[in-house]
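Appendix B. Worked example

We walk through a single record from start to finish. Start with the input: the chain for Di-and tricarboxylate transporter, Halarsenatibacter silvermanii, length 598.
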Amino acid sequence: METGVLIVFTLMIFLITMFIIEPISIDLIALSVPVLLVILQPWTGVTPEQAISGFSSSATITIGAMFVISTGVERSGVVHVMGEKIMSMTGDDRRRQLILIIFISGFVAGLINNTPVVALFIPMVMSIANKSSMSPSKYLIPLSYAAMMGGMLTLIGTSSNIVANDIVSDHLGRGYSMFEFTHLALIAFVIGSVYLIFFASRFIPPRIDPEEELTEEFKIDRYLTEVVIKEDSSIVGMTVEEALESLDYDIDIVQLIRDDQKFFEPLNNKIIQAGDHFVITSDHESLIQVIKGRALRILSRTHFSQEELEARQENQKLVKLVVPHGSFLAGQTLRDVNFLERYQTTALAIRQEEEIQHTKLEDIILQPGAVLLLTAGPETLQRLRTNRNFIISGGIDYSGYRTDKIKISLSILFAVIALAALNVLPIVISALGGVVAMVLTGSLKPLEVYDAVNWNVIFLLSGLIPLGVAMDNTGTAEFAAEQIMRLEGILAPVTILILFYLMTVGIANLVGNNVSVILMLPIAIDAAGKLGLNPLAFALTVTFAASSAFLTPIGYQTNLMVYGPGGYRFFDFFKVGLPLQIIMSFLIPVLIALFWGL
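Next comes the structure step. The output line below is what the pipeline stores for this chain.
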């Protein structure tokens, strides 16, 4: 093994490890790749110009443009109109609801990218489930899987398709057409949907009870307590911030009531007076310790229902906020971004993975998929609903949507697809034209264009794409392909295709779809060439496998998005996804061999 090959393999292993343990966000990890490649230029052969080529890649630009176009369609409210139709058409028929959720989300995902589709469908699905007395958990994993499969229907359905198209174009001299693999994806989607509709439900536990009060779902009623400050209390005269620091116990203040006035966040600078009432969150042990030494008195009523809590807070409502992948909140604490003060809201609980936390909420590092229970007034709720950094789980709300732009935004979307499909314009130019059209027609405001782009994905791709250059320069892909050649004569060609599918799926389930495409596609194409097999068939296998990470919540963005709202545990995805993963691992390579030949 040559030194350059060894260095690139080492870098690949290092990156995968860093993506799994994630000491910092993965996009920042990816940005270290161009730096390392240039530092190691004598062995990698990567020039500074090649190291930054990811920023000018047509794949990166196309994906950024499609984020904007998807947001323009989203802001029109068309998906919410579909949600209303689903509720009116299905009534309480749970199977019919599931069928429509799966097929509508899947086909829409093929048109406007599957990630925003799931973000838009989560509130709608939660509302449908609650109205039908069905656990939302039963619907949200199928929603994510349907969007993943639906994203394969077209070239623009998922970002990894666009990245794969760029790599295939460089290696084979021609990329995928807009509907290159639609027929294959349609078969896989139908078979996968049959599994989700008729079989998956038995593997999905009802983690969240239907119509469960938020205070019960987050176990808030066990932690909320109302206390009164006595005249001889040692914290009288302190600010709330000083008092919390001096108490040094796990408590948070939700509300201050003084002379019939009610105060919410920000409370840190409020001076505590005798007779003040505080609604606090605290575990029993911390509360007892505070009461013992601070001259506080617990009121007789210490548990609140959701209705009582909202009544006490006047115009404030309890809402669930989901932190999606790419949100500026991911990897930060509420304190880091001054969230409570910026949005004039109060945090009552945070659910991450299987744990619900009620105290020291401002210091919890939030991960994608985290769910926050907040109190929010009308203005705050409106700000949160229209911000792509958050998903508000609740009923359908048309406020803030430009319903008069539905026809215009859809026309722009279909024009982008048609121009690229008919080879009138390259997809990157067609997509950029769509961005301009969205702004000129008022479907998006100019400043919304910048907010629409998921910069985490852009930086991730920009950092990783030069790794493909290093693999070519050093012969890493060729070396890996030569090792696979040893299987020639031992395994049938279609079995090698299945092997590539499984390897790509394995990486995707650990570090995501885009990373797996960038790492595996050059190797698969080189291996096909050395084996004398059809390289397009191998490229398609890797492309499909990258979007089939059904086993973990971290393998695909949409899985992370439903993880928190569904109240799932990590292993739930493995139980539900394993049969589907097995089905696709054999179905897709066999169909590729049948349709494209080996």
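Two observations about the output. The domain at 214-304 is CATH 3.30.70.1450 (Alpha-Beta Plaits). The CA atoms of residues 508 and 516 lie 5 Å apart.
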